[in-house]
Amino acid sequence: MKTILLKHLAQLNSGFTIRESIDYLEYGEVKAVQIKDLSKQSHQIDTDLLTGIEWRYDSKPQYLSHNAILLTSRGELAAYLFKGDIEDKVVASNSFIIINIIEETVLPEFMVWYLNNAIAAKNYFSSASRGSSLPITTVGVVKELPVAVPTLAQQKEIIQRHLLAQREKQYLEQLVQLRHEYNNALAEQLLMKN
């Protein structure tokens, strides 16, 4: 298995800088991804949950392309996969580092898993990030991330196992919730008997 620096596997840049508060519109021409828009349970960006904005900047918007990865640059690191395409007109704020995989030997889903879960990535970022109360990660730091690149078959297996574990976790959480509701209902019945 080869270890390759991320800068040789992907193009990286930061999201656009918001210089003022964003005016959200029900049907804006452009959708902006901000950290508050992302789910803690899923590492995939749902464009239906994003709110439209009016683009009031001189520069042309840099729309996210299919399979773009957004890595949070402030606070706890988390990577998200954008499954939409340029026609969706979605931009990322400067709270993100945008990663576009250019090597066919790396699956974007694997890279999201690697950034979120691999111990080597966690150790690298904890030693390289700046700031103590709110760590900041720069594009330069992310470019130098060493990535262990398994075969495509191994990447697919890692992704499948991860998805299975996520589903199992959801089922267990639902089971705990149902058990809690059952116990509360039973307790209420016992209270009514007395």
UniProtKB/TrEMBL annotation:
Pfam family, one: Methylase_S
GO terms for biological process, alphabetical: DNA restriction-modification system
Family matches, as SUPFAM superfamilies: DNA methylase specificity domain
Domain of life (superkingdom): Bacteria
Family matches, as InterPro entries: Restrct_endonuc_typeI_TRD, Restrct_endonuc_typeI_TRD_sf, Type-I_RS_S_subunit
Alphabetized UniProt keyword annotations: DNA-binding, Endonuclease, Hydrolase, Nuclease, Restriction system
Record-level Gene Ontology MF annotations: DNA binding; endonuclease activity
Domain called Type I restriction modification DNA specificity: residue spans: 3-160
Protein name: Restriction endonuclease subunit S
Species this protein is from: Haemophilus haemolyticus
Phylogenetic lineage: Bacteria, Pseudomonadati, Pseudomonadota, Gammaproteobacteria, Pasteurellales
